[in-house]
Amino acid sequence: MELKRILVLCGGKFAFPSLQTLGVEKFLCGIGIGKGEKGILSILDQESKNSGLPYMSFPTKESLSHLRNWIDEIQPDYIFSISFPFLLSEEVLSYGEDKFINFHPGPLPEYRGPMPLFEVLRYQEKETAVSVHFMSEEFDDGAIILKETLPISKNETYGELAIKLSSRTAMVALNIAQMLQYASTIPRTAQDENKARYFEKPEAIDTFIQWNRMPADEIIALINACNPWNQGADAILFGRSVKLLAATLSDELHSELPGKVLQLTQSGSIAVSCIDQKVIHIQIVAGDFGILAAERFIKTTSIPEYILN
Amino acid sequence: MQQTIGLLLPRSTYYTGLSFDLFEGVRASLKQLERDDIRVVTENIGFGTDKQLCYKAAEELIMHENATVILAYIGHRMAQVLRPLFQAANRLLIVLDAGANAPHEWPETPNIIYHSFHNTFGSWLTAKRAVNDGFSQGGMVTGYYDGGYLQTWGICSGFTEAGGNISFNHSTGYNKNDFSMLPLKEHTENHPNGALLSIFSGDYVQWYFECLKEVFGENHLPVYLPPFACEETMLKNAVHPGGLIKGIAAWSYHLDNSANKIFIASIESSGRTANLFSLLGWEGAIIGAEAVNLMSAHKNNVAFVADTLNDFSFEGPRGKVYFHAPTRHTLAPMYETNIQSNGNNGCSVVVEKQINETVADFEAFIALPMKDAISGWYNSYTCI
Fold first, then answer.
1. What one GO molecular function would you report for this record (chain A) (predicted)?
2. Full domain range(s) for residue A290
3. Residue A179: which of B84, B107, B110 has the nearest Cβ?
4. A170, B11, B258, B326: which could form a disulfide with A18 (CB 3.0–4.6 Å)?
5. Which of B77, B384, B31, B55 lies closest to B202 in space, CA to CA?
6. Chain A residue with minimum CA distance to B79
7. CB contact residues (below 8 A), chain A span 86-145, against chain B
């Protein structure tokens, strides 16, 4: 029995394990990448050449005008989209009904949008999902084939979750390829529009710690959700604009105003008061000065005497 | 309300009664549980290697027979192929497995639970036993078929991890004419304090013992066997070569407990002989019946059912069977055995000790890096 030929449209290294798995299992018949850093493009280009697979880069939205012709040349049975950054046009999708399948790295329909990892962490979800669905002309719309759920660990960062999801997506991609190969029907469930939420790409306001409004656990969730893609959550500390990369919740309570630096702890963390009377311990701070442990960051700034006592 | 358990059955030219034994185990177990409300529907999956055949058979049971729970004698790889089907259809797959292979990762599988005899883990334990008995040099002995599974990795890593050294490997041919133990002579001369870490099953155990006797008489090195080599229906036809033969068994016909007596009597009342495969079916049906209850009570919420099963345990013919939640695999006691002549041109298994605390050992075992150990055998164990 001839294996189904699958073209993968991806957005970068998140899709590497999937490409590798589909390649090893002989399903892969071509790779297209949207945007993508130079290093990633170079690796994919070289790997595609080595394995004799068609490869094309789509650096801009405009360059997508070549996509349909390229697909027609390759004639894949299915097209998988794994973190591909662009919406596919009606012209591209008309290549075939139920030919385009997206692997969304978040629960659908609750977390539509380009960065669901950020949103599930920010909202302190206990689990997330790889949602596999047929593609339509809307972002993250289309009937769901299956949802692969996985737990979010305590204090997990965006980067850690991305690695975990990337690896799990590879397994799910192979599962789906095998399903397409062997199933007599592909199951589908329409997305419940009443539960649908679309999140735009986060802006500065979304990554900014508002000491006078946000409770401690929300601040820590935001710090984890911004690490490393935003180099941390934006904050004002000692009157300076900085980014916070790592922090933990302390057992202490306080009665100070929120956002006040309380002390430098014995373990070298900066203790800061939050609005819910809780205290967070900041371990890593980033800024123009670089990425520094909190203790070293303190030395770059003039601080009140009481903090060091 | 009538419920349906599906059963994916393989065939074997090696253990010809394999599918009959599995089926009889399931049927007799449900009868013992007085579960007349559960019907069993079967589908054939060949040797368990054909992905298309397995997928279609599972589809048939889910879509046309409306089975909520399916028992399947397949390996981890085939379970992965079926995984999205069960996920999409909201059904529970209970993999019945000899455990001759081990997965490279032990991922969370919300729709799949594994009921295994853990032959690879048993191989690991038997090798450790050899080291504990004072043997520092191991010769790994297997055949073309058995050697293709990761139980060989299990026995070698168990031996070296316990401080032993694998000083010799021998994999003999698959046909009677090619089957030879002559290459063991040199190893025996070089390492008189060695042990033979031996992985065979079925007829090959008989051939192995015959060859040992031919080459060494009763002076062969001590032999250590994994669970499937301690299978008693095959051993009773194997002429004991003399000398020391020990092993780790998952079960014995002679275990003295009431559940085992009921199991054996139930299987024998249908004219069959109780063996590892009928036991796998028997225990699988107990888990299946519980799963059917939970699926019905919780509206096919499979993730919840699988989580709830983590707390399920029962006293079975080989002792308490319970779940290791992080891997969704069942665990049960293992047994240290001594293989002796039954005085009638065959062997019998003498259980020397029950190993109760297998959790710590199992967790140490699954934490071992497999490095480059890979099995090319896709079929269910002994399905050739």
1. methionyl-tRNA formyltransferase activity
2. 204-308
3. B84
4. A170
5. B384
6. A175
7. 145
Per residue in A132-158, pLDDT tens?
A: 999 988 888 999 999 998 999 999 999
CB contact under 8 A, A182 and B107: no
Residues of A in contact with B91 (CB under 8 A): none
Q: Please tell me whether residues A64 and A168 are part of one structural domain.
A: yes
Same domain, A182 and A217: no
Sheet holding B165-172, edge to edge: B165-172, B137-143, B194-199, B223-225, B245-249, B334-341, B347-355
For B38, the domain range is: 3-118+255-331
Contact A178 B56 (CB under 8 A): no
CA A136-A59-A201 angle, 5° bins: 60
B219, B306: one domain: no
Residue B59 and residue A183: Cβ atoms within 8 Å? yes
Q: Is B382 domain-assigned?
A: no
Question: Do A113 and A137 lie in a common domain?
Answer: yes
Looking at the complex, does the CB of residue B88 fall below 8 Å from at least one CB of chain A?
yes
Q: What digits encode the pLDDT tens for the residues A242-258?
A: 999 999 999 999 989 99
Report which secondary-structure segment, H or E, holds A162. Answer: helix A158-182
Q: Do residues B237 and B277 both lie within one domain?
A: no
The mean pLDDT value of chain A amounts to: 93
Q: Which residues of A239-274 are buried (b: 16+ CB within 10 A; e: fewer)?
A: eeebbbbbbeebeeebeeebbebbbbbeeebbbbbb
Q: How far apart are CA A267 and CA A294, in angstroms?
A: 10
Asked if A123 and A168 sit in the same domain, the reply is yes
Based on the fold, state whether residues B231 and B284 are members of the same structural domain: no
Distance from CA of B72 to the nearest CA of A (A): 17
What is the percent of chain A where pLDDT is above 90? 83
pLDDT at position A302, please?
Answer: 73
Q: What is the pLDDT of residues B239-294, one digit of tens each?
A: 999 999 999 999 999 999 999 999 999 999 999 999 999 999 999 999 999 999 99
The closest of B61, B102, B38, B121 to B296, measured between CA atoms, is B38
* Pair A161, A240 in one domain: no
Question: Does residue B374 sit within a domain?
Answer: no
Residues of A in contact with B49 (CB under 8 A): none
A171 touches chain B (CB under 8 A): yes
- B-contacting residues of A 143-162, CB under 8 Å? 145-151
B80 vs A contacts (CB less than 8 Å):
171, 174-175, 178
